[in-house]
Predict the structure.
Amino acid sequence: MEKAVFGGGCFWGVESLFQELDGVVDTTVGYAGGTTENPTYKEVCYENTGHAEVIEIVFDPAKVSYEELLAYFWRLHDPTTVNRQGPDVGTQYRSVIFYYSPEQKAAAEKVKVEAQKKWKKPIVTEIVEGPTFYPAEAYHQDYFKNKGGHHTGCHYLRD
């Protein structure tokens, strides 16, 4: 198994969509990219922690490649908006890929070039060396599965 960490707006919708993908074994929503250790949701939303809402994905590379996850990531949010997805505004909603190996970095940069061909505006997604991942509070995990809802609004698959 391998891991990937992406931020593309509110982590509930990102998680919900990735859970539908064959080869994704587990998902955990959380925070990464900031300065506060063990941040809380309240701190990430209302204080200047620098963290993004992200999803950590455990995947089976025999079923889905990291490159396929990246291509999927760029389809499920608008990577051309800075610090915003739909009605959600703030640095915690930025589009970001955290890489944890030189291979992941190279793949992210390569797939970004391909993704750019599908967008009229420039992709602003950050590709950054992976920091510590902090899991979010329990009530955020599997949010739509537990609440009976489904991703809507700012997260949906684009062609």
Observations:
- The CA atoms of residues 38 and 90 lie 19 Å apart.
